[in-house]
Amino acid sequence: MQNLVVIKVGGKALGNSDTSTRDIGHLYSMETPLLIVHGGGNIISEWMALLGKRPRFVKGLRVTDSDVIDIVTATLAGLLNKKIVSELNSLNTKVLGLSGVDAKILECELIDEVLGYVGKVVNINVDLLVTLFKLRIIPVIAPIGYLLSKETKQESHILNVNADEAAGALATKLEAKKLIFLTDVEGVLDASGRLIRKLSREQAQNMIETGVARGGMRPKLEACLEALKKNVEIHIVDGRKQHVILNCMSDNPPGTFIK
């Protein structure tokens, strides 16, 4: 999959005023193999509030009890996944909505029992994905994973997985050409809030260690460090900008370029 492009989008990234959907359709028409991983943390919190549940986080990760994992699964693998699939279907692309549980694509272990049903990806099964690429079908993957071991008191096989980690792990395993993170900021910012146009592995590691990379940028950079081991080219860009995905294919890409 030397030409594979993995795109990580937020739960509200497609189908709004940006051109991301059209960019994906254009790449598909050029026979570029594509894989999309989507998040949806804000929408999960909205649905939790509607159901009278207060979100709790530990070190940036959502505490996911037996009630919350049901909400996470329904929101990510159901509502959001199918909205994205429907939007892409309108461009006459072939798209299949999946989760990391399907065919055990994302096999996980529990991070910490304090967090409940939250997993870290430890293995990826790519057979189904490779078959889909050969059929020119775009997999759209919701970041929930399958619990490898039942040697715990957990009742569910389904785990909540950080979408950035899932995207990075998939890009690494498939040895993708590019990994594009669509965000709501310009790119990676330095300690003074200025955009960093190019970032090395060493600089990314230093930003994590010194705490310059905060909030949602930290898991993105951690995912980048893994993907760089397989020479994946990485872009962290503002998904609200016009034709930002196509511009990542140019010699002067927007946002932050990491290689």
What can you see in these coordinates?
It is a single chain. This protein has 259 residues and is α/β, with parallel strands linked by helices. The protein has one domain: 3-Layer(aba) Sandwich (Carbamate kinase), CATH 3.40.1160.10. The protein has eight helices and 14 strands. The protein has an eight-stranded mixed β-sheet with strand order 5-8-2-1-11-13-14-12, with helices on both faces. Strands 7-6-9-10 form a four-stranded mixed β-sheet. Helix 5 (163-173) runs parallel beside helix 7 and helix 6 (201-210) packs antiparallel against helix 7 (217-228). The protein starts with a strand and ends with a strand.
Please give the order of strands in the largest beta sheet: 5-8-2-1-11-13-14-12
Mass-distribution shape: globular
Q: What would you report as the Rg, rounded to the nearest angstrom?
A: 17 Å
E-strand count: 14
CATH superfamily: Acetylglutamate kinase-like
Q: Average the pLDDT over all residues and give the rounded result.
A: 91
Provide the CATH topology.
Carbamate kinase
Helix fraction bin: 25-40%
In angstroms, what separates the terminal alpha carbons?
18 Å
Structural class: alpha/beta
Main sheet: strands, sense, barrel:
8 strands, mixed
CATH class call: Alpha Beta
Order of helices and strands: EHEHEEHEEEHEEEHEEHHEHE
> Mind telling me which CATH architecture this is?
3-Layer(aba) Sandwich
Give the percentage of residues in beta strands.
15-25%
Low-confidence stretches: none
Q: What kind of assembly state do the chains in view correspond to?
A: single chain
- Total domains: 1
Helix count, DSSP H or I runs of 4 or more residues: 8
